[in-house]
């Protein structure tokens, strides 16, 4: 399955402006957030697990973001994000201007 990709931000950083102070999260921190979201520990992130992750990150419309994340990062079309697809998920989140201190 081929998806159009938009590369508007570096793949290893996400950024959010808060009171004129830039908060930047690294790729490893984002991978940790999504790794903790694998609630059944099967090595895959389902739409529900993605929705919870986005909700925990404080992202608006987490259900919509989960669907969009699957569209962007699920290269094999199985409706799950595998460890191989995680880098693409992190890249997608870098365009969302999010960060977490969790």
Automatic annotation (TrEMBL):
Gene3D superfamilies: EF-hand. Keywords: Calcium. InterPro entries: EF-hand-dom_pair (IPR011992), EF_Hand_1_Ca_BS (IPR018247), EF_hand_dom (IPR002048). PROSITE patterns: EF_HAND_1, EF_HAND_2. GO terms for molecular function: calcium ion binding. Residues 25-60 form the EF-hand domain. It comes from the Eukaryota. Pfam families: EF-hand_7. This is EF-hand domain-containing protein. It comes from Lithocarpus litseifolius.
